[in-house]
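Before the break, one more example. Copy the sequence into your notebook; we will annotate it together after we see the structure.
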Amino acid sequence: MLLNVSYNKPEIKEKINAEVGKPFTLMERIKLGGIGSGKLFITTTSIEIHNLLILDKYINTCGIEMRPDGIIVTFRSLLETYALVIPFYKLKLYKGKAEEYSIYRDHYFIKIKADSKRIHNFMKKLTNYKADHWTSSKNNL
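Here is what the structure looks like once it is written out:
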């Protein structure tokens, strides 16, 4: 789900929390060693996201936030902030090239440059969290 999150609207927050869960508490963030990726450089995107990114002339960057049941990929275009909300059951993460990760949800995708160890470590943390916590908690339902 691609949303404009520039404005503080309760209905948008409710949609996001329903998809990927409420944000981690401070203690959970400390135990995980951080839940954010920092600045990531976008190399390629799906057409819907591309149409938003070409509206300005700045370098296309994004950030990833981990949530209990998924991730949120945020990026800016003009003066607006957009979020691609991806629950774990729809998240597809590929490492095609040596220095590029692809993040897919249905027909949306974002490919990011992974030119530092920090990015590789974050992606490893993300996949390990998904494997350890999400599948076991959802199988108990």
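Residues 93 and 119 are 13 Å apart (CA to CA). The helical segments are 10-20, 26-32, 47-53, 117-139. Try to locate both features in your own notes.
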